[in-house]
Amino acid sequence: MNDTTVLFRPVGQKELDLIRQSGYSAFPARLPFQPIFYPVLTEAYAVQIARDWNTKDEASGYVGYVTRFYVKTEFLAQYDVQTVGSSQHQEYWIPAEDLAEFNRNIVGKIEAIAKFQPKPETASYSRLQVHEVQ
Fold it and tell me: Chain centroid to CA 129: how far?
């Protein structure tokens, strides 16, 4: 996709349900205690969060999904890439009040590309490939 940047976002079950309700075209508004929306730059970083954090979080339904989507590069240029931790942990910090405009700059559909959930018998985690219908 020309003039777009691929981004990823780890989400829990509730957030994926809201994305699905939008027709896979928008991320839901942030909650009052969530001042930023943080899409990440690499699938590996999104996997790490979905697998290691979302699957242990009651608010995420103990499940983590990785979403992939494309955003107009020109729109993203107004934001700086933030590195949080190692150089592998890069993300954009989109203020909550800019999320509606961010959603308008998504090109195509948001796609769920991976799902993580605990394996009950071993308490480890498995990666399941998922490709949500757009």
Answer: 16
Cα–Cα distance between 113 and 127 in angstroms, integer? 10
Percent of the chain with pLDDT strictly greater than 70? 87
Q: Which range (7-16, 56-65, 76-85) has the least confidence?
A: 56-65
- The tokens describing 32, both together, are 């009052």
For residues 11 and 53, is the Cβ–Cβ distance under 8 A?
A: no
The answer to whether residues 96 and 34 touch, using CB atoms and an 8 Å cutoff, is yes
Sorted by where each starts, the structural domains of the chain and their CATH numbers stand as 4-129 (3.20.170)
Q: How buried is 42 (Cβ within 10 angstroms: 0-12 exposed, 13-18 middle, 19+ buried)?
A: middle
